[in-house]
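User: Last request for today: this protein with FE3-S4 cluster, please.
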Amino acid sequence: MGSESIIEEKKQGQALHTEQIKGNSKKLFIESYGCQMNMNDSEIVAAILAKEGFNTTQNLEDADLVLVNTCSIREKAEQTIRKRLQKYNAVKKINPTMKVGVLGCMAERLKEKFLEEEKIVDLVVGPDAYRDLPNLVEEVEAGRNAVNVILSKEETYGDVSPVRLNSNGVSAFVSITRGCDNMCTFCVVPFTRGRERSRDPQSILEEIRSMQEQNFKEITLLGQNVDSYLWYGGGLKKDFKNASEIAKATAVDYAQLLDMCATEFPKMRFRFATSNPQDMSLDVIHTMAKHKNICKYIHLPVQSGSNNMLKAMNRQHTREEYMKLVDNIFKIIPEMALSQDMIAGFCGETEQDHQDTLALMEYVKYDFGFMFAYSERPGTLAAKKMKDDVPADVKKRRLQEIINLQQEHALYRTQQHLGKIEEVLIEGVSKKSDKHYKGRNTQNTVIIFPKEHYKIGDFVNIKVEDCTSATLIGTAVGYSDNN
Ligand code: SAH
Ligand code: F3S
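Assistant: Here's the final one, the structure of the complex with FE3-S4 cluster:
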């Protein structure tokens, strides 16, 4: 459980680093805020700039170029970036030739305004314009500011092989869709990331093959809305209706893509995020049931348990439809783990709406949750048409009630694992003890256990002996048959 979304937990405010390429002499300091998609985009950016003579550095003071990949999802996320820019400003006094660029959602949202508002910034690049970085960096090196925030109908970076940054060598992200067409009224993503498009399945399979050759063991397929994946030869999802009959007949949907990945790489573990309830089909659940190597965990954000709120948010399903989906999931895969995103205090939310959220949580008993107070974002329909009328202290109290209930449910769920033997992929050394490893079971629950003779990247069977609401504690009983 955490207060940040699963797509938002990755290595915040930390220099992203990788192996050095011989002959590259320029130094790039790159850091990534926000979602896993941003993290994966930073890996794409590092790959593009490696070809331009850049190696990553962990020292801001040495950098020729500083890039920060930014998040706009809530106001606080943007404030964090502004503070970071002040830090760069201070460093520039020691390192006056250093150039600073902003990437990602804030770059897309603020565009040229960034250059005026933050004097430290030399370069502004939106999420679909990273291929233009070699030209833009050249401009900046010549002493001119550079901006490219053009959103694309086609860009998927399908042919760029990402440089893995701060990798544990075991798990990696592979992006499969970009953009979002859903227009939830509170959300800035459709404006910063553009319309939805899917990546060619062949390029996805090739990237996974290359990860397997490098000994990676777990792939997380990424998209704002993975279940909406649809490859019909390229182009925007919204234009599928105009595609040729042949393109329609040979199109690949998400269940098919998952099946292709799991069949072709039986030793690789697959995860994915995020699933939008309205697009999640039973085919996907059946595909998950069919393959042992697809993890039994779905991040299924609902945002609210109230039909009034779901409607105001422009979520395309009702509370009842969501509950039916959850029933079907548990019917097909009883051991499935589910997680939520919730927004407390959206425009017009009443005490009854809030109670409906708590009651829905009681019904599902989510394993994990990522919970937020509503934060109005400029340009969204909610900002334009609705009143942010729930007082801050009420938002805070409701959020706390949601968090407290989630904590109870998380403990209830971890307790269900006690006494069981579960397959775990070893991801690294426990933060709290260097004598213990950490890994996750298929449900995504973290397990800590003594190292013994095992090594990172092994699949082991762990007997679960104890738990907290967030972590299982156990002992290895041997290798699993997946090694
Ligand atoms: N489909 C995306 C959602 C991205 S935003 C995904 O891959 O998860 C992640 C979460 O941030 C949302 O599910 C929502 O709960 C939260 N969020 C988005 N906009 C918000 C806002 N304006 N205020 C508070 N929380 C917000
Ligand atoms: Fe945002 Fe809704 Fe898309 S939360 S990312 S508009 S599914």
